[in-house]
Amino acid sequence: MHQDKHSSPPFDPDEFSALQDFLGGYLHEDFSEEYGSPSAALEAFLSDASGDEVQNVKEEWLRFRTLLRDKPFGETQSALHRLGAAWQPGHPGEIAALDEILSRA
Question: What is the arithmetic mean of pLDDT over 99-103?
Answer without folding.
Answer: 97
